[in-house]
From TrEMBL:
Organism this protein belongs to: Sphingomonas carotinifaciens
GO molecular function: DNA binding
Source organism superkingdom: Bacteria
GO biological process: regulation of DNA-templated transcription
Protein name, UniProt field: Helix-turn-helix domain-containing protein
Length: 244
């Protein structure tokens, strides 16, 4: 990774940072540093110290939980709408999950944890704004849990594709069978079967290591109530829009 100087608020690619009150943004602007990353770059390891907070501008930070046998499963995604390192705001100085960059190369704005803590101490409204995003992310994680418990694989796959589609720059998404296994917790054969069902509905087209979204409305129909509530909460809590 390499770094450059931070930009002004209207020049950053992170929606959460752009939504901040200007005085709150200025409290952290001198300490923000833009870095580039590639797909599969490791941002954090569970159990290690949170030294840096990351605000993605492009690309996706996959939040992964480790299970017995060192297996990792996806519990949530963060793109340009938010940040990773949120346990710090809840009083924990350790990463709770692994965080790995996915989907496409991009950039993120990072800030030292001590700098952010000092800023939110002096600016309570900054803490409140960041915690509103944490609420949204917790809602996304909760929906992941519920969906994993009660929904068929193809519905869960439709949801994850939508989550990726929300956070990438186009309709073609780098998604391998192995990555689907991280999100769905199923065998490769089940991934293949579910993808074929979505293709039969003409919602997506599967390519080698990629998925192309053909009909987003159909994909949302197939996802049903697995998708939507966290996105509405983001618009309400972070962007200040009326709830759908």
């Amino acid at each position: 990774m390499f770094a450059e100087r931070a930009m002004q608020q209207d020049q950053v690619g992170n929606t959460l940072l752009r939504s901040l009150d200007p005085s709150d943004f200025m409290a952290i602007a001198p300490y923000l540093e833009r870095v580039s990353f590639a797909v599969d770059d490791n941002v954090a390891d569970a159990g290690t110290s949170i030294d840096t907070i990351w605000f993605p501008e492009a690309g996706i930070a996959a939040v992964l939980d480790r299970t017995e046998g060192d297996r990792r499963l996806a519990v949530g995604l963060v793109g340009a709408e938010g940040f990773v390192g949120w346990p710090l705001l809840l009083g924990d100085d350790r990463w709770l999950h692994d965080v790995v960059m996915r989907a496409e190369k991009g950039t993120a704005l990072r800030i030292d944890a001590d700098r952010l803590l000092a800023a939110i101490e002096d600016h309570p409204s900054l803490r409140a704004a960041l915690l509103r995003f944490v609420t949204v992310f917790m809602t996304q994680m909760g929906r992941t849990i519920v969906s994993s418990l009660i929904h068929p694989v193809e519905r869960r796959m439709a949801r994850w594709i939508l989550l990726y589609h929300d956070r990438v720059s186009g309709d073609e998404i780098c998604l391998t069978h192995e990555e689907f296994r991280l999100m769905l917790g199923v065998r490769r054969s089940s991934v293949t079967d579910a993808l074929h069902r979505l293709e039969a509905e003409q919602a997506v087209r599967g390519l080698r290591g990629r998925v192309v979204v053909r009909d987003r409305a159909k994909l949302a129909e197939l996802a049903g109530d697995t998708y939507g509530p966290p996105e509405r909460e983001y618009r309400r809590l972070v962007l200040g829009a009326s709830q759908d």
